[in-house]
Every structure is written in C-alpha cells, then in structure tokens.
Specification:
The complex is a heterodimer of chains A (130) and B (124). Chain A is α/β, with parallel strands linked by helices and 130 residues long. Chain A has 5 helices and 5 strands. Classes of the chains: A alpha/beta (130), B alpha/beta (124).
Chain lengths: 130, 124
C-alpha cells in the first residue's frame, strides 16, 4: 500500500514532526511504500537548516534527513508556506534578493499541486497536525 | 482508495479567520485540491464558521489580507460542496443570512455521515 503523509505542525512546538517520523518508519517497516512526505503550514519550519536545538535534545531536521537518505523518501516542503516563514532555497533567495537560501539539505520545495498529485496516487493519506 | 484517482476530500475549517494563518492556508489547500480534480467538500465548523461572514474588513481593521474573498471563487475552482455545521452556527449566533457565499447548513450527525464517506479528511 502506498502512503502519503502531510505534516502541518511545527517542530518542537508540537509533536507532529516526531509522530510523523515514527509513523513513516513504521510504514516502511511493515513493507508499505511512502511517497512523499509533504511539509505544509507550520510543518515547513522543519525545513530550515538553521534549526539548532539544544545538544541534549533530539535534532529533528537531522533525523528526518537521515531517514530520507536511508529510505529514499522524498521530503517536499510547500514553497508558499516556507517562503512566508523565511525558508527559501538558493534559487528563491536569489529571486527575492536575499543573500542566500536556508533550505535544509534533503528537502525540496514544491507546490500544493504536488500534494494534490500525491493524494491522488496514495492509497492512504495521513495528516499530522498541531 | 483507488490508485491515481480523484479522491473525495473533506477540508474542515475550524478556526477563526484572521487570528492565525490556519484558515488561509487551509483554504489554499482546499482550492488547489479542487483544481486538481479532487472532489472537495469544504466544511466550516467550530470557530471556522466565522470565515463565512460577509462584510469583513481585515485589511482596514487588522492590516491583514482578506483571504475570505477567495471563497467567492470556489465554483471556479471546482469546489461546489460547501457545508456549515448548525451546532457551531447556533453556539456563535451566526445566521446563514450573513454568509458571504452559499453554504448548506447541516446537523452534526449528518456531517459525520459526510465525513465517513471521504477518502481524506484534513482539518485546519
């Protein structure tokens, strides 16, 4: 079965990014497929490479990056949600006259249309909200 | 759910329109899903029913963008099913006569049946 996941809760402020990661691991462990994970609304905060949690806390960005790299899962972040929150890839930063982008490695900006397409292709769509 | 198929998606708007970006980003998602040929049912309940009120002036009063104007374009986006929960309206003294757009007022029990028939339910 193919799952698509949307995360709309902010990292650390809410449990959404943690729960979604646990769920995503479980989906693959059970032999299902997962494509993509879409970060929307406050979930877009996860895609900033400037996240610096205290050293004795979990590093959610790094955990998601490692998961995506190991499992080949795409991490898509809504470009409108991200830009509104000051998270841009290098091309967007150049377009907006910003010195540089700050999109974390392993994440890719995408439009809501890609989410709509993922919902069409998925057998199950699971939303982790705040 | 069927593979690569149009899905039945309920987008539930549950928050007041202008105090946060929940409502605006929730509506964006609903509009894009409808544009991509999903069968979208837009549901207003809890404080979300305030999004339906006409004569709002968030630009003047709050300096905020009036995203509720986009509600008027719902049919052009292919979203024709708009529901408002009666219990939420009654609790907030909101009348259908004050709606910016046409919405069908449904009881909570009826709404539950609608939601049970969806492939996806997304709340904002």
């Amino acid at each position: 079965m193919n799952f698509a996941v949307m995360v709309s809760g902010a990292p650390y402020s809410t449990q959404a990014c943690d729960s979604a990661l646990h769920f995503a691991r479980a989906v693959l462990r059970c032999g299902h497929s997962l494509q993509p994970v879409f970060f929307y609304h406050d979930g877009a905060w996860l895609a900033s490479e400037l996240n610096c949690p205290p050293q004795d806390d979990r590093h959610l960005v790094r955990e998601w990056q490692n998961f995506a790299a190991e499992c080949g899962v795409e991490l898509a972040v809504c470009t409108a949600s991200a830009q509104r929150r000051g998270i841009l890839d290098h091309a967007e930063a150049a377009r907006h006259g910003k010195p540089r982008g700050n999109l974390a490695g392993g994440f890719r900006v995408a439009g809501l249309g890609q989410l709509a397409g993922a919902m069409a292709a998925a057998d199950r769509f699971v939303h982790f909200g705040p | 759910m069927n593979q690569n198929a149009q899905k039945k998606i309920a987008c539930i708007q549950r928050r007041a329109p202008h105090g946060s970006v929940f409502a605006a980003e929730g509506l964006d998602l609903a509009l894009v899903a409808a544009t991509f040929d999903h069968e979208v049912t837009l549901v207003f309940m809890d404080d979300g029913v305030f999004q339906l009120l006409k004569n709002q002036a968030p630009e003047r009063a709050l300096g905020m963008r009036d995203f509720c104007r986009a509600l008027g374009a719902l049919p052009q986006y292919g979203c024709e099913q708009v529901l408002a929960e009666r219990e939420s309206l009654n609790a907030r003294n909101v009348a259908a006569a004050d709606f910016l757009i046409a919405a069908t007022v449904v009881e909570r029990a009826e709404l539950l049946e609608v939601l049970a028939a969806q492939d996806c339910v997304i709340d904002f």
